[in-house]
Specification:
The protein has about 180 residues and is an alpha+beta fold. The chain has helices at about 10-15, 20-25, 45-50, 80-85, 100-105, 125-130; strands at about 5, 30-40, 60-70, 70-80, 110-120, 140-150, 155-160, 165. Pfam families: UTRA.
Amino acid sequence: MLVRRTLPTEPAVRGSASLFMAESERQGVRPSRRMLYVGPERAADHVAAALRVEPGTEVLARRKMMSADGVPVRIATSYLRLDLFGGTPLTDPGFLRPSLQAGIEALGHRFGHAEEYLVARPPTPSEAETLHLDPGEWVVQILRAAYSDDGTPVHTLETVCAASRHVFPIAQVTGADEF
């Protein structure tokens, strides 16, 4: 099983209700997703830095697993600051309609820019178990930190992909003819 994860994400896909579902369906793969957890969680150092909070600060985590043709391929966790989004509909369990981004914007936060970091590393024991990884198999971690127009960190998405089950095509900037 091999799934493509385009970097940067194409605008038509980025604007869909589910990035993974749209990407997979376009590739002829039968996608599915399952919510694993919604609730408070202590921010790891890299998440805290992206959200501009102290490490260990409780943040809202929304964690889901994605499968392709029945094979687990990704764990995606959205992290949101509780001081901005605690007590809002974003804390509700399950998938948000029409999308998490729409929910963030409905609360008055307009997306301004994002930064994305990609790291290849060995999986944590929990990641290896959830993704059904073989011993020695690595993961690719993508951390996307999104900021509002005024620079407020409004959403951090950590996607952990089974490295052997993904290809990461890199799109060329419009109008450029070389990398």
